[in-house]
């Protein structure tokens, strides 16, 4: 797929088999990206990611050639999913996060999700823009925002299906 001049594709990653890959990805992020992703200054990224992976999320890996450049996760909570994602610092601001959130939303609602939500820091302008673009309701949640997507407000026209990803 050609997007903003970069060839990339997405595939599911396995929480067990690909765990080390996901940990390395997160360890490669800047402190600022870690803070935005985890909503705090994480001292032990490895332990935190290991603990998250133990709950067996759906993991979406975005590759450019052989490089893992973005990772999104979806954690199932009853009939809803909490999503979170990160794009490698040097690839941020090129539309990859917006594209990946669209794919994740489409995939999760296709899987029968009633609601999808995400948390983000109050200064996360990019994530708030992405959320509003897809029709998410942005709610104050103390020192963060909670964004809720449901089938009534969702706007996913033209977003591709993930049915053919590996
Ligand atoms: C937040 C994040 C996922 C967004 O992905 P991205 O690829 O960098 O963002 P995009 O290029 O898709 O841009 C998304 C929107 O922000 C806008 N944007 C891009 N760079 C921007 C900047 N520096 N300042 C303000 N807005 C910006 C884009 O124009 C776009 O809005 P639009 O569609 O209305 O034009 C990514 O920056 C990231 O990984 N950040 C660290 C981890 C994080 O915050 N995760 C989210 C927690 S759930």
Automatic annotation (TrEMBL):
CDD domains listed in its UniProt record: NAT_SF (cd04301)
Domain N-acetyltransferase: 8-155
Record bears the keyword Transferase: yes
Region forming the signal peptide: none
GO terms for MF: acyltransferase activity, transferring groups other than amino-acyl groups
This protein's UniProt keywords: Transferase
This protein's record includes keyword Metal-binding: no
Protein name: GCN5-related N-acetyltransferase
Species of the source: Caldivirga maquilingensis (strain ATCC 700844 / DSM 13496 / JCM 10307 / IC-167)
Native organism taxonomy: Archaea, Thermoproteota, Thermoprotei, Thermoproteales, Thermoproteaceae
């Amino acid at each position: 797929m050609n997007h903003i001049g970069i060839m990339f594709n997405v595939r599911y990653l396995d929480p067990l088999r690909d765990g080390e890959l996901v940990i390395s990805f997160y360890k490669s992020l800047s402190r600022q990206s870690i803070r935005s992703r985890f909503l705090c200054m994480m001292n032990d990224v490895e332990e935190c990611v290991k603990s998250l992976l133990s709950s067996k999320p759906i993991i979406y890996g975005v590759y450019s050639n052989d490089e893992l450049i973005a990772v999104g996760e979806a954690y199932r909570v009853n009939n809803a999913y909490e999503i979170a994602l990160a794009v490698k610092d040097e690839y941020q601001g090129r539309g990859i996060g917006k594209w990946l959130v669209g794919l994740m939303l489409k995939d999760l609602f296709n899987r029968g999700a009633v609601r999808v939500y995400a948390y983000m820091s109050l200064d996360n302008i990019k994530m708030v823009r992405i959320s509003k673009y897809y029709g998410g309701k942005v709610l104050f949640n103390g020192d963060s925002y909670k964004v809720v997507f449901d089938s009534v407000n969702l706007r996913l026209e033209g977003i591709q299906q993930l049915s053919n990803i590996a």
